[in-house]
Design brief:
CATH architecture of the largest domain: 3-Layer(aba) Sandwich
Number of strands: 13
Structural class: alpha/beta
CATH class of the largest domain: Alpha Beta
Order of helices and strands: HEHEHEHEEHEHEHEHEHHEHEHEHEHH
CATH topology of the largest domain: Rossmann fold
CATH superfamily of the largest domain: NadA-like
Number of helices: 15
Distance between the termini: 45 Å
Shape: globular
Radius of gyration: 19 Å
Length: 324
Amino acid sequence: MPETIEDILRLKQEKNAVILSHNYQRDEVQDIADFIGDSLELSRTAAGLDCDVIVFCGVHFMAESASILSPDKTVLLPELDAGCPMADMIQVSSPRTVWKTFPGYEVQPTFVFPHEFTLRDIKAKYPGVPVVAYVNTTADVKAESDICCTSANVVKVMESLPDERVICIPDRNLSMWAQKNTKKQVIAWDGFCHVHDRVTKDDILKARKEHPNAVLMAHPECRPEVLDLADHVTSTSGMLRFAKASDAREFIVGTELGLMRRLKKENPDKVFHPLRRDMICPNMKKTTLNSVLKALKEMKNIIKVPEEIRVPAKRALDRMLEIK
């Protein structure tokens, strides 16, 4: 392990590389990263750095975002098959009927579409209605959309549009969260994050019983009935800020377990409990120190978004970033 880390640091310097780690990565991967954070936050940081190579320890759409914002840099994804099931639930065309929904929802968004539909089908059904694409989407989906959003600014993005209706893709829970906080009519895609969507109302009640003095933070990718019971609903970066600023000493964390590392490290005098101990993203955990080393050594798994996709995808991201 020490030799692997030494080799990574040496190659990083030789190749003028920067290592980015998403908050959900393995502890040891976070430890060797130059920057840790949310996907878009990391891509924007790397775009402003004087480096030649970006090693993105995350999943495929994140490396694509880095390529979109840094077209002149070489972007490496240590594990090429590290994908995002939610991002794969929506296609621009040629739909794949792979992912099925979970039953038992207490609240439904205005519209839900089955996965036999494509983004172009929805745009044809609702001509002129703007498409708000979550950053957790592939580059070609971003390119087909009008504007991007994050879990933190989805409502602000929707409110910035003059239209009374918006199409929001691909996360149904994020869309329903936005619907509760805007007067816009939200036409929602029926996608979900399997890590956050597994949390139930009973999980909340159990966690509160076990930790009655803890403040419960939940990610907006969780189900509506879960968010209704949370003390604070926010993104992973929002959780980090909230935990640091709060006077509370104990927290229940409703997101992927990888965030626990930073929460504990940045708040050593506070206590953090996972909402569920199985909130683990297998794709995020695929990246290891060995795969980072191999990617740097062999300069393999290069992610390069073609210009005909990159330019309109960047336009959708830029429109979001222009919102004050």
